[in-house]
Specification:
The protein is an all-alpha fold. The longest helix has 24 residues.
Length: about 60
């Protein structure tokens, strides 16, 4: 027996948005679990707060 399902495009767009949000959250949790990244992030945040901005040309 064959059936047909109709789904409104807005539902598909909503699901896509939710999927992206979930992926972003998983990525954030993964980064927070990386001790080296967290240390680097905290250091960079403090340097920016203190006005110690690097020269991007040196990179």
């Amino acid at each position: 027996m064959e059936g047909q399902v109709c789904v409104d495009m807005s539902v598909i767009n909503d699901l896509r948005s939710l999927m992206i949000e979930i992926q972003d959250r998983i990525e954030s949790l993964t980064l927070i679990g990386d001790e080296e990244f967290v240390e680097s992030y905290v250091k960079a945040k403090e340097e920016i707060k203190n006005g110690e901005l690097g020269d991007f040309d040196e990179l």
